[in-house]
Every structure is written in C-alpha cells, then in structure tokens.
Amino acid sequence: AQSVSQHNHHVILSEAASLELGCNYSYGGTVNLFWYVQYPGQHLQLLLKYFSGDPLVKGIKGFEAEFIKSKFSFNLRKPSVQWSDTAEYFCAVSLGTGGFKTIFGAGTRLFVKA
Amino acid sequence: DTGVSQDPRHKITKRGQNVTFRCDPISEHNRLYWYRQTLGQGPEFLTYFQNEAQLEKSRLLSDRFSAERPKGSFSTLEIQRTEQGDSAMYLCASSSPGRVGTEAFFGQGTRLTVV
C-alpha cells in the first residue's frame, strides 16, 4: 500500500534558523506531491505542489521543496523561518494515474521561538 | 465566502446515536473528498465523489458510514450507531476538473466527539 513518511513529528527552531522537513513516500509510479500547512485554528492550505518538470518547486511564503525521484523524497525547506511559520505541515501524495485520493503523512508540528 | 463549507463545526453525541455532516464544496468543483483526522495523525482518506458518483471508498469506511452526493453539489456523511472510536475531525475537500492530481481545497472540518 502507498504510504507517506514524515521524519520529524515536532521541530522547534528560533527565528531566522533554516528549516528542512523530510518526506518520503512509497510508490513506484508517477506521483503528484504536495505540502499542506495548517496554522493554529485554520484549515489545511496548500503550500506548494509538484506535478512534473523542474524538481525544485517554489511555493508561498518563501517555502520550496525538492523532488528527488531516486530517493522517493520531497523535502520542504525554508532558509529563514519566522514566528508566523508556527504550524503543522503535512506532506501528501496522489497517484499520477487512476484514482484521485491523496495520502497524507502524519504531519510535523513546527514551533518557531520569537 | 467561496471556500469549502462544513456544517456543523462541532458535534457531541452519545454512543449509539446517528450523526450526519454536510459539506458544500467550491461551486465549480466536481470532485469531493471526505477525510478523517485523529490527534497526531494526518488526514486519512475515506471516500471520493466525481459529480454524484462515488468512485472510491476506503476500507476505513465501515458499513456504519455512508456518504452521498445526490445532485453532484453538496455531500453528506452519515455515521450510524456511533462508537467512541469515531471521535475525530471529519474533513471535506473539493477539487476542480482537470489534470490528475489537482490540489484539494479543504473545509474547516467537523469535530465529532462521541461520549
């Protein structure tokens, strides 16, 4: 069965620190990759997505992610975090052909200290 | 508000009662999804509609769960004979027609507590 694994459940950083959240998936075929964010008290929102093309994807609020097909990875990065980045981050995968369901990782809670 | 709307936002029910949740997707979206999220976990896929057709159901969706989308617009998720293990956040999402993998837009969710 397809699955998504996020390496860190909780991350605490100080403002201006760099961020990298790991994500690996298990599926050998074509995939579409997403990072969603959930700010406290708000609904899930899309940060960025990868369908095809340049494996380095840039999203909103200075976030980027790199798709490395050989490693089945789609890690999220931000060079300098802000207090307002405190949120829960979910990596997600949908299969490139056939069904449309999206499979989510367990999430990483990021807390940024001011 | 043109986002995905879910009602109610919170529901507390006694074990054994039936509950029904409603989801209104973004108006031009033909795809609608239901997910369940428990504490410390990511959303788990439950079922998916394209227009009024229910195209996929997770094995998580036991026979106590039923979802409908009768006119291809809003959807309902009913849980019969609720159990304490049904306590969770139930999320609805919708996406537009188009290429496979178009991102889903989520509602605020319905938090169910079974006591």
Protein described:
The complex is a heterodimer of chains A (114) and B (115). With 114 residues, chain A is mostly beta strands. Chain A has no helices and twelve strands. In chain A, the strands form three sheets. In chain A, strands 2, 5, 6, 10, 11 and 12 form a six-stranded mixed β-sheet that branches. A four-stranded antiparallel β-sheet of chain A has the order 3-9-8-7, with no helix packed on it. Chain A has a two-stranded antiparallel ribbon with strand order 1-4. In chain A, a hairpin with a 6-residue loop joins strand 10 and strand 11 (102-104). The N and C termini of chain A lie far apart (41 Å). In chain A, 33% of the residues are buried. With 115 residues, chain B is mainly β. Chain B has strands at 5-7, 10-13, 19-24, 31-37, 44-50, 53-57, 65-68, 75-79, 88-95, 105-106, 110-114. In chain B, the strands form two sheets. In chain B, strands 2, 4, 5, 6, 9, 10 and 11 form a seven-stranded mixed β-sheet that branches. In chain B, strands 1-3-8-7 form a four-stranded antiparallel β-sheet, with no helix packed on it. Chain B is globular. Classes of the chains: A mainly beta (114), B mainly beta (115). Chains A and B meet through strand 5, strand 6, strand 10 and strand 11 of A and strand 4, strand 5, strand 9 and strand 10 of B.
